[in-house]
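Have a close read of the entry that follows and walk me through the local backbone shapes. See right below:
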Amino acid sequence: MVEEMYLTEEGAAKLRMELEELINVKRPELARRLREAKEMGDLSENADYIDAKEQQGFLEGRIRYIEHVLRTAVIVSEDKAAADVVRIGSTVTIQTPGESPETYTIVGAAEASPRDGKISHESPLGAALLGARVGQKITFHAPAGVMKYHVLEIHQ
């Protein structure tokens, strides 16, 4: 069974920009490095050539991954994220007793970045928040144990 991948409009735009950079800037730079390394002669002991080939593999893998995500992902429009219930694309302010409020945006796994306040709908917290309403208390299991939060606000 293949699960659907979700992206916000912002996340899709960022992936398109990254893809453009990889194809139009990084790929030609790497091709130039490979040509220069080949001109040095013996490729079996040429560290520059070996490094460039490894980077080429990572680059091409990333390009294929982004193309696949953009081709198959369901784009969640921010205007579809109703303010009364948490959905993918919603920004939510939550608080655990005795702590400061925290704000997160629920996104698809491909654009999750907890450091930037973007959590996946597949994460324990993200999954627990889906469908929640303002004033509701949520409980979920995390590696640190049972976590409890109070939903303070849902905004666009």
Remarks:
- The chain has two domains: 6-75, 80-155.
- Residues 80-155 form a domain with the Chitinase A; domain 3 fold (CATH 3.10.50.30).
- Helices lie at 9-39, 47-72, 124-129.
- The longest strand covers residues 145-155.
